[in-house]
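To the wet lab folks,

You asked to see what we're planning to order before we commit. Fair enough. Below is the target structure as tokens, and below that is the sequence we designed to fit it. If anything looks off to you, flag it before the synthesis order goes out.
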């Protein structure tokens, strides 16, 4: 059986610099896969290329049999690949509800939007309490939840997240990871980039490790958690 997402020979350049050097990887349907690596390894660039927010210079990105690599980003979203942006990109002067509805603006069939909004709020009770308040008044953790909830409004089949735990207090990090596991248990396929390698490996089924624009290691998360090289480089003592 072929993978849900199959990436082959993906290359991305910034000018003459090659930030992603022809990587191959795949994601299995219904699983959480994590992409680990030090700062500057090329993780964000990889996600942005999958989302079509930057153009890959070569390679193939097949989602469930459809080639996405040359599609504009809104068509990629329409195919079910949706990224929660790094830095969240919440519109702080709008309400929580308005931010959520923006996640659905590309959708053709508007009939289900109310029930999707309801589902999102069910997943994030903190957002429900503040749904008609200004998004700018949310804490960092709540803004991250809003960014995830907004991405869900686009009806993803594959959700990409770039360091969702960044800058959050430990309790909120736990809450975000718990939510990701919940979403996965409801059938969502997740591709998670994280600096917090230990937490990411704990919820992921499979992991890739990136260094200098290349994938240098991969395996089931449980194995990487015990791999001495991974422990030394990414998990600390
Ligand atoms: N907009 C950009 N212009 C030029 N170089 C960039 C840009 N964004 C990232 N880079 C470089 O590409 C490499 C990979 O960056 P990035 O994908 O952000 O890594 P990571 O997310 O793993 O920290 C780094 O060397 C970084 O300096
Ligand atoms: Mg990054």
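Sequence we intend to order:
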């Amino acid at each position: 059986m072929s993978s849900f997402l199959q990436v082959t020979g993906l290359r991305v350049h910034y000018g003459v610099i090659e930030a992603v050097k022809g990587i191959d990887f795949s994601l299995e349907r219904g699983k959480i896969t994590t992409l680990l690596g030090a700062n500057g390894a090329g993780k964000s660039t990889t996600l942005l290329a999958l989302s079509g927010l930057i153009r890959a210079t070569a390679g193939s990105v097949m989602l469930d049999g459809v080639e996405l690599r040359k599609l504009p980003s809104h068509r990629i979203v329409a195919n079910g690949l949706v990224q929660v942006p790094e830095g969240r990109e919440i519109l702080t002067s709008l309400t929580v509800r308005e931010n959520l509805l923006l996640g659905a603006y590309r959708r053709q069939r508007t009939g289900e939007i109310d029930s999707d909004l309801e589902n999102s709020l069910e997943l994030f009770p903190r957002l429900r309490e503040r749904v008609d308040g200004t998004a700018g008044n949310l804490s960092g953790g709540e803004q991250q939840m809003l960014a995830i909830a907004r991405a869900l409004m686009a009806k993803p089949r594959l959700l990409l997240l770039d360091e969702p735990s960044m800058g959050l207090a430990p309790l909120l990090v736990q809450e975000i990871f718990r939510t990701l596991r919940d979403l996965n248990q409801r059938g969502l396929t997740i591709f998670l980039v994280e600096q917090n390698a230990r937490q990411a490996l704990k919820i992921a089924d499979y992991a890739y490790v990136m260094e200098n624009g290349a994938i240098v290691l991969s395996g089931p998360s449980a194995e990487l958690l015990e791999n001495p090289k991974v422990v030394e480089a990414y998990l600390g003592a």
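Structural context that might help your review: DSSP finds ten helices and ten strands in the chain. The pocket of magnesium ion (ligand 2) is lined by residues 43-44, 162 (CB under 6 Å).

Thanks,
Computational group
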